[in-house]
Every structure is written in structure tokens, then in C-alpha cells.
Amino acid sequence: MSTNYATKRVGQAVFTFFVTVSLSFFLYQAMPGGPVEALKNMILSQQSTSAGTVDLERINRLVNLYTNLEPDAPLYVQYFQYWASLLFEQDLGRSIYQNEDVTALIFQRVPWSMFISVYALVIGYAGSIFIGALMAFKEKSRFDSVSSVLMIVLNSIPYYIVGVVLILFVAIRWGWFPYGGRAASSLTPGFSPEYLWSIAYHAALPVFSMSILGLGGALTMRGNSVRVLGEDYLRVAELRGLRSSRIATQYVGRNAILPMYTQFMIGIAGVLSSSVIVEQIFSYPGVGLLLYQAIQVRDYPLLMGGLIIFTTVTIVGILVADLTYGFIDPRISAGGDDA
Amino acid sequence: MSGDARRSVGAAPDAADAPNDRRDTVFEVRGLDVAFEMSRGRSRVVRDADIDIYREETLGIVGESGSGKSMLASSLLNAVVEPGVTTGDVTYYPPDGGDPVSVLDLSESELNRFRWEEVAMVFQGAMSSFNPVTKVRTHFRETLQDHERNIPAGMDRARDLLESLYLDPDRVLDSYPHELSGGMKQRALIALSLILEPEVLVMDEPTAALDLLMQRSIVSLLRELQAEYDLTLVFITHDLPLLTKLADRITVMYAFNMIETGSTDEILYNASHPYTRALLAATPDLNVAVDEMHAIEGSKPDPVESIRGCSYHPRCPLADDDCRSEEPSMFTVESGHEVACYHYEQAAEAIPLRGDANSGRGGGTDE
């Protein structure tokens, strides 16, 4: 039963990955002046200005090197070639502009993006769980109504506005935090306390503005907690004379967090994709900024690579959520009986 | 050691000197009121309740839905849900002549100790009384832990309890609540309620969601448990026939008031309040033709509006000016049988139970 479930989930994940990659491949190809065409034109124009002699053979070889695609082969062949190099060589092609392997480029940047994303997500969700629980315990109080309004307002303001406002006031006007970069350039990278501190210092604003994204969970948490507070088992727990700390964590907390768990895992995707904009605002050199730059110069191999990485992270996040949900809610592993 | 001995020696003459009823009483409820403030006024859902609960008896509290029975039960543990306000006196007398406890004056931490150690409660929503994400074992363990009991000894007791309720201890303890059937959950909850050896077990419609067979078997299990563990049972239900198999005494509630209290036999064969009689006459019975069963005309009063006089007078065939102007106090029919009705002597004549006395009994006992 449960292995069946796991196989099914993994199968779904693989299928989703396949569909996403295929769709983006064909969409990119279908764009007027798709990657191969664009690249060919680019090299052509470069060569016509510099050397003058046009060697189509050489251009095709170059294009092949950059995109992993044979420019003259039919589309389906190109498609299979792309998959083959992706699966067997973990090769995503070469960046057109940076003249480096896409895989290398992305994996240089991924840790930095993960660093701010994970912190933003954890801080955002921890904050929202705490605030939501507090709001539920003080239901209908002044604190509850004020923070409800505040949460709705924060939820409605896009996080990048928060980022821009933060830069304007905290970074530029008051100069409390840097407004760009991931560490002071004067420091040599390494495990020195100064360098680590500088990393944290530079990450503070992006993390903060992205964690606003997770704060929307506070209202969900509040709703969940209010529901749990009305459950029979909570009343019985009180009648049993259990310690209130146990009731708050094991009874209210545990049951109210359950629905947030999946949301959290899916949130990983949201935070990663929002990093494209946040990193641009804070000129934070992560995958997001890399992709943003790739979009601007139509660096297709890099774009495809970034998309595949984001897709993978999202699918893995949801898969992990699905597979582990049974551990935190025993009712799921029994087949979703909601008694 | 010696201190203990001296205390018990000292306690013996005390207990002997104490008035008899004091020693036998485990709960003394006086002038109990439960009220909720609502936007349209004050809703008094228990009004001026007086009752004594005796040690090791089974007291049945019967009444229709919304008559205040559950609130009365909750107030025994000072557990009326917010924003309900409980006033009056609820005094608990511990066994072996300990100091009486005024339940409504207990602090939060005293209350936490009082609950489940002295008085446990199994209530209506038994199906969802367990935390869905933890195993049944955890429920026993955390209860023992938070009451600072010895856990291995307590878990042994849990096994004994589950076994005496005809459950397989290992299977039940290792299950999550959703893996148990309704009847198993109910019995596991009863075992959980007895884990700290309470003196009193309050059961608020514990059988409401169970099928008839399971109801009867739980009732017989309760009787066994009561004998085994010297329990005082307070059993709340709207199922009068069920109660007659279990209770030593029955209190009838109508519209937030206690209107009649007496031994089960007295209530069955000598019911003196028109409402009690009407209730008995309304009890469904397969042996009686449908047209002989009588529903009670009218509907029960609203908890916010206060009725002048007896709360039953709008529905009572015996009502006169006295009933309409002043609320009757308790009259003693016989020793231990009290009724709040001016016309208790005429009630038997005015509201006959169905057929003869024997079929009146049919609603109650089927032995």
C-alpha cells in the first residue's frame, strides 16, 4: 500500500519533470528566432563585422557546442539530443555570453540562492506559525484584529515593493545595511568570522523582504489553530489536566501545522522563483540574478538550464512533502481516512 | 512513616464523629448557576441546582437536549466552556476524610491536579476525544507524566483497564485513534479516564454515538468497572430506559432546573412531577401500540427569557395560578425523593403512565 503510494508519487514527479522540460524546450524553439536561429545570427553578425568570411560549417559547430543541439537536424533529433546530454552527461550546454558551462555557472550560484531562500522561507514560516498561533489564542482581541489587518496588507503588497522600500530607507537613507552584493569585496572568501558576518549582513535585506512572502501563512495558521481549539480532543486534553505547554505544542501546534507542511514545501518553489526579482533588486549574485541577466540577453541555454534547476527543486520539494506527510500525519499513510 | 500512621489513627475518630451523610457524600452542589452572556441577554443554562452525590453510587441525570445536563456535569470539574460563568458552591469531599475542596475556587494549577485525579469525565464527542496524530499509548503516557505518576506502573494499570474492557491492550495502545472503531475508541477513552484512579467518573452521553448493542455492552462494562474500582458514576443521558439499568438514583432536569430526584425505582414507579411522568409516557416501547405513546405538547422554554413561576407550566396540564406566579421549591415525596411541583400528589392521577403499572415499567427494565 505505502510502497505503491511512493512509486506512484515518484512516477508523477518524473512525469512532471519530463513534461516541463519538453514543454519549455518546444516553446523556446517555437519562439520567433529560437535559440539556434538566434545564436546563428549572432555569430554571423559578429563574423561579418570582424573577419568577413562566412564559414557555415564552423558556425554550426559553434552552435552545437553552445546549445548541445545540431542546428540543421530536425527538431525531434535536437530534442532527443538535449535529453541525452541532460540525462547522461548532466550537460546543459554552454552559456552564449559567459562562455562557460551552464551547469558550472548555475552550481556556482545555487548555494547563494538556496542560502537566502531557505532562510527567508524558514524565517517567514516560523514567524507566521508563531504569529498565527498567538492570534488564535487571543482570538477576537485587539492584537488579533490589528495583526489580521497587518497580515492582509503585507500579503497584498508584493515582496519586491518591500524590497525597494527597504533599499530606499534602510540601505540608502539610513545606511544600516548594504544595498547589494553578497559579501564585502575587501574580504577574502573563507571561513573567517569577518567574512561569514559579512555574508549574513549582506543577506539580511533580501532574506527579510522575501520572508514577507511566507508571512501570509499567519492567517492560515490562525484559521487552523482556531479550528483545532474547537476540537473535542482539545477539551478532553484540558479535562485530563495536561500541562498547558503540552496542549499548546502537541495538541494545537501539531494539528494546526499539518496543513502548513505541504504549503511550506510548495513555498520553496515560490521563494526560488521570486529570487529572480529579489536578487535583481538587491543585485545579489545568485541564480535569480543569473537568470534575469540571461533573459535580457536571450541566453537560451542558460535560461533552459535555470528552468530545469527550478523545476527539479520544486518537484523534489513537493515529492518530499508527499512522501513524508505520512510521518507527521498518521492518517495519510492509512489512505487518507479523515475520521 | 510514623506521621502517616498517626494521621490515619487521628482520622478514624474524626470520620466516626462526622455526620453520616457528610461521609457518604462525594459531591455537594448548592445553588449552582451557569450563565452565558449573549448579545440578546443573559442565558442561564443551569438554575439554582442543589444535589448531593453519594460515594460509589451511580447517579443518572436525565433530560431532553439543551436542558442543562452537560453544563451541570462540566461544572463538577469547573470546566464550563468560556465564556460561561459558574457560580454557587460545588464541594468535593475526598475519600478518607480529607479536607473538602471547593471546586469553583481552585486555581489553574490546582484544577489541573484535581481534574482526572479526583474526577474524570468522558463526554459526548468520544469519537474525537483522542489527538489524531498520536498513538493511544501516548495519551496514557502523557496523562501519567503530567500528573507525576509512575509511568511503568501506570501503563500496567492501563493494560489491566483495557483488558477488563475486553480490548487487546497491545493492539489498542499501538494504534492511532483512527485505526480503532467507535466502540473501541469509546472503551479506550473509558480506560483512559480511569488511569489515575479517580473517585468520580462523569459520563456525558458516552453512548450517544454508538449503536444499541454497543450501548448495552458499555453499560454492563461500566457496572463491572464500578464494582471493581469503587467508582462513583455520574451518568448523563437523554435515554431514560438506558439509565434505569445503570443508575441507583435519577435526577430529572427540565429547562435548566432540577425538577425531580429520587431512587430509580421511585422515579420509575412513583414519578411525581408531571414532566417526569410525561417523559416516561413518551418513552418508545416496542410492546406498546403507537397511539398509546404520548409526545409532550409544546416546546421547551428559551434560556434567555425567564419564565415566571414553574418553568413547566406552559406545557403542564395541572398548571394553576400558583404555578404561573411562583416557582415551586422542592417537596419531599418520600425520604430521598424530592420533587419541584405544587401538585405532585395529583400528578399520578392526572398523567397516567401507559396501560397499567407493568407496561410503565416496560419502558425501563426488561428483566
TrEMBL record, chain A:
**Which PROSITE patterns does UniProt cross-reference here?**
ABC_TM1
Q: Which domain of life is it from?
A: Archaea
Name the InterPro entries on file.
Answer: MetI-like (IPR000515), MetI-like_sf (IPR035906)
Q: Where is the ABC transmembrane type-1 domain?
A: 110-321
Residue ranges of the TM segments: 12-31, 112-137, 149-175, 195-219, 264-282, 302-321
**One Pfam family here:** BPD_transp_1
Give the GO biological process terms.
Answer: transmembrane transport
Keywords per UniProt: Membrane, Transmembrane, Transmembrane helix, Transport
Family membership noted in the UniProt record: Belongs to the binding-protein-dependent transport system permease family.
Q: Which PANTHER family match?
A: OLIGOPEPTIDE TRANSPORT SYSTEM PERMEASE PROTEIN
Q: What is this protein called?
A: Binding-protein-dependent transporters inner membrane component
| Organism, scientific name | Candidatus Halobonum tyrrellensis G22
TrEMBL record, chain B:
Outline the segment boundaries, as ranges, of region: Disordered.
1-22
Tell me the GO BP annotations in alphabetical order: peptide transport
Q: Which keywords accompany this UniProt record? A: ATP-binding, Cell inner membrane, Cell membrane, Membrane, Nucleotide-binding, Translocase, Transport
Q: How does it sit in the membrane?
A: Peripheral membrane protein
> Record's GO cellular component, any one?
plasma membrane
The subcellular location is:
Cell membrane
Pinpoint the ABC transporter domain residues. Answer: 29-280
One example GO MF annotation: ATP binding
NCBIfam families in alphabetical order: oligo_HPY
- State the name under which the record lists this protein: Oligopeptide/dipeptide ABC transporter ATPase
Starting at the broadest rank, the lineage of the source organism is:
Archaea, Methanobacteriati, Methanobacteriota, Stenosarchaea group, Halobacteria
